[in-house]
Every structure is written in structure tokens, then in C-alpha cells.
Amino acid sequence: MKPKKNPTKDLNKKSGLFFVLGLMLVLGLAFIALEWKSYEPKSIYDVSMNVSPSEIEEEPVEKFKIEQPKIKQILPPEIKIEEDDAEIIETEILSTEPNPDTEILEIDDIAVDEPEEEVHVNWITIEEVPIFPGCENVKDKRACFNEMMQKHIRKNFRYPELAQEMGIQGRVSTQFEIKSDGSIGTIQKRGPHKILEEEATRILSKLPKMTPGQQRGTPVKVSFSIPINFVLQ
Description:
InterPro entries: TonB-dependent_transducer (IPR051045), TonB/TolA_C (IPR006260), TonB_C (IPR037682). Residues 144-233 form the TonB C-terminal domain. It is found in: Cell inner membrane. Belongs to the TonB family. It contains 4 helices and 6 strands. The mean pLDDT is 77. Strands 1-6-2-3 form a 4-stranded mixed β-sheet, with helices on one face. A two-stranded antiparallel sheet has the order 4-5. It has a domain at 127-230: TolA/TonB C-terminal domain. By secondary structure, the protein is an alpha+beta fold.
């Protein structure tokens, strides 16, 4: 059987050559594209910068003076030279060793000074009551003291706002001390609520200094009790 095509007309014979030529052409174009360089025209540069060095204005250079740090001179301490004839007092160093000749005292022979206890007298039994400022020339100083205490409470009384909002009221029983120097000492209080107790303490802490009470001619500490009522209107 004869072939239908002419063997001399087979196009596949030179396909390898055409493939190599096409590949070389593509590689050449790619190399040219990567290595291609372009330059801008010279006319785009600013000719205004082409000036001579003499035309450039020089800015003044400021010179700063560097000050050296001041070093404080510390003088050595003055050494005082004593003359040979000067008398030098030497410190005597006592021995810590026990002396066997020292007399041992008995416990009964040692006198101990006991601190004198401050006398505390009740307001009812005190001979001369403390004098409130302003009651010095009044005959009945007890009545004057009570009257001045009531005036002091009314003057400094202030109902706590929180107690008003909470509806707290009642009586606060207080007791304070008038020391032997006339100042106000410990304040004790007892009431329906801590807020009212603190207000009572504040009022009594504002009491002025008084003339102390006396028992047998000696200033003593005197305790005084007074209730403070907090009533909502």
C-alpha cells in the first residue's frame, strides 16, 4: 500500500530548528527589555542653582563661650596647736570590773520615789468647783457653771444632716474631766447612734480652759456629767 503523503513534503522535519530559533528570539527580546536604559533631557535641570560661590550669602556663625565650672575650694580644717604648758583634761575611763570592797545595800535601804497620783474628785463632793470663764465674780459658781454649759451647748449645737436624713434622735449622756490645770480631759459618751455621739464630743471639745477645782486647797481633777438631747422638729 502506498502512502498518501509525499515524504519530501513532511513539515515535522524542521520543527526542532524552528523551535530553537523562536526560543532564541524570545530570550533576546527579554534581555534587551531588561537592559534598556533611558535618560531624561538635559533641559529639565534648574539652571537657577548654577550660581558662583561669591553670590551665595554666608550665614553668620555664632560663637559660644564655654564657661569653666566653678570648683568650690574646700579649705582643710584648722589645726590648733596647743602649747606644752597648756593643761589638757583627760577623760577618765572607769573600770567595768566589779569592786569586791563595794558595800551591797539591802532592798529595804533603797528609797524609791513613787509618782504622786492625781486626785480625782466627783462634782458633787468637790469643795471648790471649777470656775467657767465669766463666773469668777459670781457667788453661786455651781449654778453659773451649769448655766454657762447650757449656753455653750446651744451656741455650738449642730444637728448632723445624716442623722436628720436617717431620722435618728435621742439623748447622748456625756461625762468629761476638768484636769488639775483647767483643760478638758477624757470625754465619755453614750447615745442611740455613733453620729450623735461624735457630735456631742465635738461640742464638748470646744469648751474653754477653766479654773481647776480645788480640794483642801489643792487643784484636783473633777468629772462633770451632762446630757445632750437631739430632737427632730
